[in-house]
Amino acid sequence: MAEFYGLRVNGTNREVVDAQLGESLLFVLRERLGLLGTKGACEQGECGSCSVLLDGELVCACLVLAAAQSGREIITIEGVSPSGVSTDVQQAFVEAGAVQCGFCTPGLVMAAHSLLERVPNPTDTEIREELSGNICRCTGYGRLIQAVADVARVRLSNGVSRD
Amino acid sequence: MAVSVPTSLAEAVSLLSGAPDSVVLAGGTDLMVEANSGHRQIASVIAIDRVPELRTWGVDVVRRNLWIGSGVPYSTVMQPGIASLVPALAQASRTVGSPQIRHVGTIGGNLGTCSPAGDTLPVLAALDARVHLASVSGERSVGFDEFMVGVKRTSRRPDELITGVTIPILNGWQGYSKVGVRNAMVIATASSCLAVDTDGRSVRIGLGSVGPVIIRCGEAEQWISGRVDWSELSVSNADVDEFGLRCGAAARPIDDHRSTAAYRRRAVEVLAARQLRRAFPNG
Ligand SMILES: Cc1cc2nc3c(=O)[nH]c(=O)nc-3n(C[C@H](O)[C@H](O)[C@H](O)COP(=O)(O)OP(=O)(O)OC[C@H]3O[C@@H](n4cnc5c(N)ncnc54)[C@H](O)[C@@H]3O)c2cc1C
Question: Which residues form the 2Fe-2S ferredoxin-type domain (chain A) (predicted)?
Answer without folding.
Answer: 5-80
